[in-house]
Write a structure and sequence with these properties.
The strands form 2 sheets. The chain has a 5-stranded mixed β-barrel with strand order 3-4-5-7-8. A two-stranded parallel sheet has the order 1-2. The two termini are 34 Å apart. The chain has 303 residues and is α+β, with helices and mostly antiparallel strands. Helix 2 packs across helix 3, helix 3 packs across helix 6 and helix 4 runs antiparallel to helix 6. A hairpin with a 2-residue loop joins strand 7 and strand 8. The chain has 7 helices and 8 strands, in the order ααβαααβαββββββα.
Amino acid sequence: MSETNVSINNLDPTLYELSEAQLAAVKLFELPDKEFEDALPGFVEQRIAQLSEGVSRDTVTGSTPPFSTFIPPDRPLFPAEDVIDQQPFLLDDPNAYQAAIARVRSSYLHRVLRQDKSPNVAKAFLNAAVWGTFEAQALYFGSYYGSTMERLNKLEQKADTLRNVSVSELGDSAMCMERAGIVHNSLMLLGVPTEYFNGKLKKYDNEGKLLKIEGHAYLIVEGTAGAKYLYDPANPKLTEYLEQGVSKAAPNVKKIVDGEADTVVIPWQRVVRSGGGEDVMPAGEWHYISNTSFGALGRMAMM
């Protein structure tokens, strides 16, 4: 990582719509690279301790109501408690958060450096937080998508150990609950307000036919000026590059408009680039429905 020379250390955080927690994160980002690497573990440890005080330790399940508090390392998450005898897992690996914050820092400094002499720091910080946490969770788990059955098998295999499973053991089987949880906590460590939601995801085709319904975990993130955004780390938006035979993933984010309270609708698209051009084809709608009870099979399908 190259050394950087960007600083707003002595500026009023309110000038840039930054909270005190966000300003502390920005000051961490602006440290020289070696100092940042040395300070990062202590920053994460201290923030985890602060945010874990006085919050619920009740098990998070598919029917848990939305919450905007940190998920402490000893709070279990149980994705399929009604389906199979298995152990819950814990978000207990600080390495996941260190990797996320390092990724956010790189994105933030890049965004500030490419702006003019008066960068929009608040906007750069929020965009970097979304992109950085999205990329970091995919790198941490080793994939953009998980596997329901593989994860269930891993949790079932630990059932006779009488201990909760560490999120670090899930690897590329990780589904929506753990991906949303890691991103939720990473954002909170950085001072970005976020709310963790459980509910349903309904997928419709272009004719309005329901193709699939599944239990799902996702986030609502607060941006600048009180704007709110749905952020689904487990379902990225893809751009297909036909000549190269690859796809590029981007965060699945949508600004919430008035009237979208319990249900947020995202028009889904297939984006294909070929021969220097780009085709954008409608691919139905995805409906995110919060606070909706769902049965055992819905819990098992949480992705």
